[in-house]
Queue: 2 jobs
Job 1
Amino acid sequence: MNGIREEVVDSAFEAPADGLEQVVAAIVADVLSFDRVGRSDSFYDLGGTSLQAIRICARIEQRTGRTAYPEWLFTHDVLSEFVAHLESEGEDGR
Amino acid sequence: MRGCRASARRHPVEEAVGDTRDTDTSDASDAEEPDDTDDTDDTDDTDDTDEKRSDRMRRTAWFPFPGRSAGGVELLCLPHAGAGASAYRAWATGLEHSGVTACPVQPPGRERRRDEPPFTDVRPLARALADEIAEVITGPFALFGHSTGALCAFETARQLRRIGGPRPAHLFVSGRPAPHLPLDRHDLAGMSLPELTETLRRLGGTPESVLSQQGLLAALQPVLAADFSVNEVYDHRTEPALDIPITAFAGEQDGGAGPRDTAAWAEHTTRPFRLHVLEGGHFAVFAHAERVHALVAEALADRVSPARGSAGHVDTQQEELSR
C-alpha cells in the first residue's frame, strides 16, 4: 500500500501531461511509494531522499534513454519543472 | 565515572543521504525496500472534519511529515549530517499501531528548507527547535537523534529544561559517542570535490552510489559541512544530568561510535539508561528499523504513568545483539 499524496501535499492534484511527464510521474510515485504524483508536486514535499533521487534517475534512463542527474530533483523539485529541464538537458542516448 | 580521554575520538561517519536502507542504484534494489505502507484512507484532506484535523499535529517547516498522532507519543526524529526529515519518512509506517508517531524533524538548510542557511553550531539550533517544540507540541513526546542528530536532541532536551518548556518522556540516541567525548574535526567546507569524496570514502558510511554522483555531492557539500560543524565544533559544558531516561543504540562495527563510546551516554541521565548494540555499522539503526521501533515503543509504553526509577541510579545494563 502506498502513501497518500494529499497527506503531504497541500495543493490540488494536477494530472501530469501526456508523454514524458506521465512516465516520470509514474516512476516518482513508484519509488517514493505514493498512490499518485501530480505535475505541480515537489520532490521535497513528497519526502524524497538522495538515494531515491538516484534511483529515480536510473529508472528514467532505463525507460527513456535520457540522462537525468539526481541533483536536478533538488534544483527543479517541482515535477513539471524537472521534466522540462530533463527535456532540454537530458541527452537522449537512444 | 567520567573517563579521561587522551585522544580525540574518531568522528562518527556521516552519510550524504537520508535513506540508508539501500545502497544499490539498480532497479533490483527496490525489491529490498520495505513497503512504505499506510492505512487506506479514501478521505481527501479537504474533506476532513475539524475533529479529524485536530488529531494531527500541524505541519510546520520543522515538522514537514507530522503523521497522524491519534493521541500517542510523538517521536521527534533528528537526522544525521547531510540528511533531512525524509530519512525518517518510512518510520511513520514502521511505528504505526505502536502508540508512537514518528515526527521527522527538518533542520534548516536542506530539502524544503534548502533556501535557509543551515546552523553550524548546535546551541542556536537547540534554541530554535526547543522554541518550536514549546509552540507546536501539545502532547507527550520523545526525542530521537542519529549521529549529529543525537547531539542536537541532547542539547534540545537541555534547552527545554532551561526554558521550562515541555519535557520529553525519553531521549533516544544513536550513532554518536557521548557528548562529553571529543571528536576529530573534518572541515568539509573548503574541500575540493575529489578531497570531499575521498574524505567521505575514508570515513565510511557513504554508499559508493552517492560518492560516484559528483553533482549530488557538490549539492550536498554545504549542508554536510554545516552539519559536521554542528557535531564537531562543540564545546561540551557540564550541567546536571537530565531527569529523562536515555536509550542508546550502537552499531557493533561502527568505528566512530561503538558500544563503549555510546555506553558513556549513561552519565547524562539520573533515570534508567539502556544500551542496545545492533549488528552492523554506523547505520545499523536504519538497517534494523523494525527492531528499533519495537524497542522504542517498549521504552515509551509507560509514558502515561512514567515509572519512577531510583533517583541517582544509573543502570548501564543490557548489551543486546540484534541479529
Job 2
Amino acid sequence: MRRRPAPFAFLRLQLRLWSAGLRQWLLSLGLMPDRDAPALAYAYAFYVAALGLLWVGTSWGALVSLTLQAAGALPQSARGAIAAAVPGLFPLALVALAVAALLGMPLRLSGADVAHLTGASVPRRLLAALRFLPSALAVAAIALPVGTVLAVLATDAASHYLAATAAMLPLAVGAYAFYWALGLLRLATARTAPRALLWLVPVATLLLLLFRSPLLAWPGQTFIRLAVTGTVQLSGLIAWLLAGLLCMLAAAGALRRPLLADESLRRNLLRSIDAGRRWNPAIAAQQRRAAILSRRRPYLALPRVGGAGLLAARGALCRLRYPPSLWGLVRAAAILLGGLDLAILPLRGAGWVMWLLIVMLYQPTALTEEFQMDEDPLWRQFIAFGSPRLLLYDALVPGAVVLLAGIVDVFLLHLPLAGAASALLLLLALLAVATLAQAVAAAAGPARRLPLPDILPQVVGYGLFALFGILLHAALVAAVVLFAYAAVLARLLEGRKSSAARAWPGRADGSGPS
Amino acid sequence: MPEATPPLLRAVDLGYRYGAFQALRGVNLALHPGEIVALVGRNGAGKSTLLRCLAGWFRLEEGQVDLTDATSGGRDARVVLVPDTPSFYAELTAFEHLQFIAQLHGRRDWRDDARRLLQALNLTGHERAYASSFSRGMQYKLALAVSLLSRPDALLLDEPFGPLDALSSEALWAELQRFAAEGRAVLVSAHQTPGMVAPHRFLLLEGGEIRAEGTAQELKLRYGLASLSGEDLLRAALHGEAEA
C-alpha cells in the first residue's frame, strides 16, 4: 500500500479538522452541509450569509457611531489625556503578551494530537503555522473593533480612523506572532518550568524603557500617526508582520517535541480539572494543587518543632510551597478588611448589601485550608488535639496575616487611638467568626453531629456583622455580639466527633502528646 | 497463643445503616494483643464500614466498641485505620509526612525507625518526592509507614494487598508480623489474600454479618479444605450456605 508522506497526511488531517469545526458551526445555524442538498438549502445558506454580513456591517456602524458620540461628549482635556495614553497601551500590551507567552502555551496539542503527531515526521514549522492560522484570524477579528474604538477616542471625528483600523491588522497579528515565537522558544529550551524565564520580562522592559527603545514605542506611534494624518507606513507595517511571522517559524523549528507533548498533556489535565471546579471546587482545587506540585521540586523544610509550633510551621510551609494559596489569603484579607472599612468609615448607602454578596460568593475559605486538610480522617486520627484547639493552631498563620493587614489598614485610615483599638477588636471578632464558621461548615461527613446546613453558620455570622457593624456602626457592640457567636460556634465544633476520638480515646481534647 | 490475654478491642452487637440499607448487623468480635486477624468478604459485604466503625470514623448507631490495654495500666488502646485510598498533604514530601506525625507525637528517635520502614516497604529513594505524586500502591505503603511510626495498639488495614505488587505484599506481611510480635493487634480486610498471608484467625463477613470465624486449622476441618486462603474460605462458606 502506498503511504502518504507525513506532511501531506497531516495537512489532510488538519483540513478535515477545520471542516468538522465549520460543519458544527453551520449545523448550529440550521444549515445542513451536504453535497446532495436541494437548491433551496443553498438559497438558505446565502440568506444566512447575507444576514451575517448585514449584522457585522450594522454592528460596526453602531460601534463607530457610539464611540464618536462618547468621544464628543468628553471634555477636550479628557480627550487629550486619552490621546496621550493610547500610544502607551501598545507597549503595555506587548509586555502583557510576553508574560502570557512565558506562563502560557500558545501551541497546545490535544491528547489525540500528542498520540498521532509527536511520533510522526510532521515538520514542526508546518504544525505551528497551521495551528497559528485560525487563532490569528480570531485575533484579527478582535483587533479591528478595538482599533476603531482606540482611533476614534484618540483623535477627533474627522480623523482617518479607517486607515488606523486597517493598520491594526498587521500590528495585532505581528504582535501575536511574536507572542507565539516567545512561547515556542520556551519549549525549545531544556527548562520546562513556565516561570523559569519570567524574570526576563521586567528586566527587558526596564532596559528597553531606559534606553527609550523605538521597538516598544513604534507600534503605538505608527497607529496614532495613521489615525491623525492618514499617512500609511506600509513598508514598516509589512516588516513588523513579517518579522513576527519569521520569528514564530524560526522558534517553531527549534521546538522540542517531547517538551511540547509533556506540557500539553499537563495543561490538558489542569484544564479538565478546572472544568469540574463548578461542581466541586474543593476537590478540583486539591487535584490542581497535586498536579502542579508533582512537577516541582520541594523547597524549604519542615522545622524540627512539636505541638502548636509544628502545625503553624506546616501551614506556613504548605502556603510557601504553593504560592497560589497565598492569593486565596490575600482575597480573604481583602474581603474582611472591606467589611471592616464599611463598619468604621462614615459611609452611608447600600454598600453592606454588596459586601454581604461578595463575602457569600467568595467565602474566605483560605483561613481554614490547614484545618480542612487535618480534618481528613486518616490524618485526624494522628492529631490528639480537640477540634477548637486544632483550629486555633491551624489558623495562626492565616489569622496573623489578616490581622497584620488590618493593622496597616487602620494605620492608613489615621483613626484616633480609641477608634483604632475598637476597629482592631472588631476585626479580631470578625476573623474569629469567619474562621469558626468555615470550620463548622467543613465539619461534614458520616461522623458529623451538626444537623445544620453548611451555609448557615456563615450567613448568621456575616449577617450579624452587617447589622451591628455596618448598618448600626456600633463597632464595640458588634465585636461583643460576634465574640459571643464565635463562642457558640466553638462549642458546636467541640461537640463534633472525629476520627481522633478512637485514636486518642478520652484525650482528643488536647491532652495528648505535645 | 494471643487469645490468652484480654482483648485490646471488643465490638459488641455492632450495627450500622446507610439510610434504609443495613450495612452491619449484630457484629461481635475481639482483637487480642499479638494477633493478626483477616477479615474476608465479597465486595459490598461491609468490611470497610466495619473498620470505620471500629476506628471511630463513623458514629456508632447500634452496639459499642470497648478499648482496653491491659499492658499499660488500664489506659485505653489506640486504634488507627489505614483506608484503601489514603489522601495526603499535597505540599509535604513522603519523608515530611513521617516527620510531621513523629514530631506531633513528640518522638525524638523517629529517624531510624522512619528510614527502616521506608526501606522495608521499598520506598527508599522517594523520600523527597511529594506524596501526592505517588502511585496508589506507594501511597498505601506510605500511609502504612506513617501509621506504624505512630505506634498504635491496634492497626486496622482496609484492602492493603489490593494495590500492592507481590514483593511489596511480602514486605507488608513481614512488617505486620513484626508489629504484632510487639504485642499489638492487626485487623486486615481483604477480598483476596496472597499466598504468604497466614493470619492467626479468619473472620468471614457476608451481608453485614459475621458468618464464620476461627483459626485456619478450625476452618479447614469445618469445611473439609486441604489449604486455606481468604478465597477458599469465602468460596467454601458461601457454597455451604447455598447448599443449606
